[in-house]
Amino acid sequence: MTTVVIHGEGLGKSYHRGALQHSSLLRDHLTRLLKSPLSVFRRPKDETFWALKDVFIEVCEGEVLGIIGRNGAGKTTLLKILSRITRPTTGWAEIHGRVGSLLEVGTGFHPELTGRENTYLSGAILGMGKREIDRKFDEIVAFADLEKFIDTPVKHYSSGMYVRLAFAVAAHLEPEILLVDEVLAVGDINFQKKCLGKMGDVARAGRTVVLVSHQLNQIRRLCHRVVWIDAGSIRKDGPTHEVVSAYESAMARDKGNGEQQERGASIVARFLSWEISKSNGEGSHTLDNHEPVTVKFTLDVKQPIKIGHYGVALRNYEQQVIWAWATQPLRLGTGEVQLCHTFPMLPLRPGPYTWLAALYDEGDLVDSWDCVPEMIVATEIYQHPQEEWKGILNIPSDFRVDGRGSGCS
Amino acid sequence: MSAVVTGPRSIPLRESPVLRITPPARWWVLPFGELWEYRGLLYFFIWRDIKVRYKQTAIGIAWVVLQPLLTTGVFTLFFGRLAKLPSQGLPYPIFYFAALVPWTYFSGALQNATNIVVENQHVITKVYFPRLILPLSAVLSGLMDFAIGFFVLVGMTLGYKMRPGVAVLWLPVMLLLAIATALGVGLWSSALNALYRDVRYVMPFLIQFWLFASPVAYPTSLVPKPWRWLYGLNPMAGVIDGFRWALTGHGQPPGPLLLASASAVLVTFLGGLFFFQRMEGTVADRV
């Protein structure tokens, strides 16, 4: 790690509020014009929003840099600037070497085209030359385990097959500098492992990787150095374990500010931790199968609770409540208490989720906790491959066709 | 707030190739070198367009010929037999088909180019490549259809016992002009369409209007002499007239009309390049 391959200074990106809620209809502009004809000469109210502000970044050759931060902190914006998808408003950057960016799996896939055709198309869009794809084609197909279906249009693929092929193409991208955004959050756990292995090879081969991820475990496993972006600026930059633990404790501290202060003050009871308990007694924060699952919250009760109400909720990435539940009044004695939920299965689409646990005593809030870390769902996918048809649930279904002369072929 | 730097600043930067990322420039530079670098992707985009276009249609590629042929039939019946418009001494089917082959190419290419940036917004927001490749591929992928139509046209002229002369050497010039027109206007319309989706609805109307402003259904000789120069500012007027003449020898050889057309194309094209480039810097934030 001697030479710098990415160097950026003063990088900033601003959006106008107007542009964010931008209307693409000329009609809206015309009505505005009719309502107040002078508005053309007035500059729109300056509601500039800085998604990224004065960021300095340097990445050395062969380094695997992680970028973390909460949603909307500017991680993806930074990655988009470095991959030239969007231009910075201020500052400049220099990149030395061939850049490949992977902001999504299956970029450029067309449902009408066959697996073979899509491999070439997606490969070309991601920056591979035809000869390069020719050379790697068999390897890609073998990696995706799709030899038999490679000449079938991908619209007939199951979601798992679709994702596998898309991943396989991406995993064989061999630029000198690889910019990756969150893409590893999809796919089942085994395939994820395979891809991580492949990415590890890439890193070991001396290639430079910049990885944006919400999955701190993944960051811990892969990255040498981590940059934590908060509200558009760099909050901390340093060795992985330092930055990640600082981030984790900050997340635990200031999630939902007001409530959290009450939390610190509570002397009655306090949630300590949560985990998915496995049959072998191990705890985990990753859900990787559709088997019955037990989620366990550990509560430290300091004063006995006579009429306690305990509630739990599960939120997705977009803060939508997926499921919530509350108990009948509970009696709790002092000491550590385990609150366990066993579900027949959690049919959730892969991605990060947050548990919320709360406890009330006689109607007063005792503790409310946005559980850290997040729960990562990495189960096998049973969903429609196209983004716009991906629902919230990921449930396997037994499918059959009834009727004379009909059936699955 | 400035960042904390971990590595010492004195470490050397790696040698080329260097890529500089800066805010959008005030003026613009044409990325010819970059376009060349991405020619492989251009090829794949064209290839995808052609593949996808006929994958779901029942009679596939036959549409390429059927569309202008059916229009030729309609024109022959209504403008020819019923309205008895002059046809420069050519049989009506030849007169119309010779104009409809370049016209169908042009209108298709323009429509494709208009929608291509919006249709590929998904790719645009995820991967970088010179965005110019998109309208370029839209315009070039139509050439395949054009080639097929052209062979049918040549067959037709031979069927009518017409012998092409030296004038056919003008055909590539006409085709080039048609491509440049479609691309020039397509650069404007695709960029505008990314900003205002209204453009998508305006285009079919504009194209229809343009059809009647071009000598497809009638010969240029119907346009009053004093207005010819203005007529010539429509580049497709020069293209269609020239195309017919180059293939059949009937009508006017390219003259001042073509010159006016060519200059109009040049202005539209350069303006379009500039406009498209301005839009390119922000398109990923807007689509």
Give an overview in words.
The complex is a heterodimer of chains A (409) and B (287). Chain A contains ten helices and 20 strands. Chain A has 409 residues and is an alpha+beta fold. In chain A, the strands form four sheets. In chain A, strands 12, 14, 15, 16, 18, 19 and 20 form a seven-stranded mixed beta sheet that branches. In chain A, a hairpin with a 2-residue loop joins strand 18 (351-361) and strand 19 (364-370). In chain A, helix 4 (115-125) packs across helix 6 (159-171). Mean pLDDT of chain A is 81; it is low at 256-262. Chain B has one domain (36-278). Chain B is globular and about 60 Å long. Chain B starts with 17 loop residues before the first strand and ends with a helix. Classes of the chains: A alpha+beta (409), B mainly alpha (287). Chains A and B meet through strand 1, helix 2, strand 2, helix 3 and strand 4 of A and strand 1, helix 2, helix 5 and helix 12 of B.
Sheet-strand content of chain B, in percent, reads under 5%
Strand tally of chain B, please? 1
The coarse silhouette of chain B is: globular
The H-and-E topology of chain B, N to C, reads as EHHHHHHHHHHHH
